[in-house]
Amino acid sequence: PRPQLTRDNWQNLNGSWQFAAAKAGDQPPVGRNLAEKILVPYPVESQLSGIERHEDRMWYRRTFTVPKDWRIGSGKRLRLNFGAVDWRAEVYVNGTKVAEHQGGYDKFSADVTAALKPGRTQELIVGVYDPTDAQGGENPPVGKQRLDPSGIWYTPSSGIWQTVWMEPVASDHVDSLKLTPDVKNSRLSVEPQGVRSGVPVTATAYAGHKKVATVTGRTGQPLTLKIVNPHLWSPDDPFLYDLKVTVGADRVGSYFGMRSIAVEKVDGTPRTVLNGKPVFMMATLDQGFWPDGLHTAPTDEALAYDLKMHKQMGFNAVRKHIKVEPDRWFYWADRLGLMVWQDMPAMTAGVDPDAASRAEYEREMKQMIDEHISSPSVVMWVTFNEGWGQYDEARIADQAKSWDPTRLVNSMSGINLGVDGGTGDIIDEHGYPSPALPPDPDGKRALVSGEYGGLGLAVPGHAWSVQQSYVDVDPATYTDDYLARLDEVHKLACKGGNGAVYTQISDVEGELNGLMTYDRKVVKPDVKRLKAAHDALIHDASQPTPAGCS
User: Fold this and answer.
1) Which of 36, 59, 407, 531 qualifies as a cystine partner to 314, CB 3.0-4.6 A?
2) pLDDT tens across 4-51, in order?
3) What domains are defined for the chain?
4) Considering the entire predicted model, what is its pTM?
């Protein structure tokens, strides 16, 4: 579940749990069987969960046993890990509260050693509160989730929606690795997080089975691995180095990619630049919903499938739209070679967030950046979208850039001139169905078309009964119509465009503007024609002076 911080021993706690609806003020049901069953890690509203209804408050319960050979207590601790729980969670082991967490899109862990009962079955209870967009004084980041879904808003994904697992760890153990490539100086910064200072560290990088660099030091400051003649990561060649790190008695596996991303002026025009060369980012809008699992892909293969289809169609990028996926999604993007624009999940559109909501938004944004800062595929943080829950746009963009100066920041996808303070690296306009570029007020930021297209095509037997699209298309001309819009993207590249995001990779609930149906059973366009056209566009538009311009 966590490919950039692996350990040899771990045990999955997904599967059938007991379940019950709850009320505010309820005490945890310690020692009590709950009436219903739920399949974790599928959201309570999803078909796969077995519940298929929304609850604002809920209890989960199961038992587990700790393998004896983990030797918990004799120098080893037991760590309980949650990929994500939407939105507020309390965790109890044998009636002892071991964790509280708020945030629907980030992971959390707890050392549960002190709560364990020796030589017996352990009881695990999770209490969840998720108001979604109910506006009962809470306005958490919700993305596309709505209690009354329609049109561009979708069914909520409450409760446990990512993998739960446990692992034995050393007393001194690393919580995460911050891996920062420095292509210019052929080196990688390795910073173990969440462990006290002064613990001995060894980090060794491998290219396949070949050891290419090693460094020793102590926790409390970054270590530097010198990577001679680095094999750079790119969409065309997504090369990943393996990494082994020892922190005291803790041994973890990881990986990294060597790549740089920036906006630089090329012949006087601000350009997005990957590894020192201009790159045109051709992406789709990717909502990350499935008909049976909602926020949770039914399988790891399903999670990877949409990204593999991006590659087959010739896209080199993906905009993950106001949702944060599990770590394994980022692993697949890293491995397959897609440049990720990662959106911060929006608060409820049309509601001015109060001070508490703003503080929560910024806290969750910091978590998103920290947790995915080592993924080479992530090239851009998108801090707001189309003014949904938007505030202090310039300050938030500057804050994101200070948290991660190595990536691009798009302060708002969807133009909002006059309030952005000229911040961020990107300026972005949405246009439907034809792509559009924003005017360039300062000549410093790279221009992109952050959303366009939305060509709708219903496939009988593969569409929801309530349907919406931006523009309906004849099945016979679908591919031609798509390529006509792509020609417009090419023309915009000739006017300084650096990227475009087609809406969208798949249908979602009532929306029919996907390149695939919601069940992923039907691919609508001619894939070979799309790939040829995307390859040509990316090649032409990534030249220092874009080619194919009349």
Assistant:
1) 531
2) 999 999 999 999 999 999 999 999 999 999 999 999 999 999 999 999
3) 11-170 (2.60.120.260), 176-256 (2.60.40.10), 276-541 (3.20.20.80)
4) 0.96
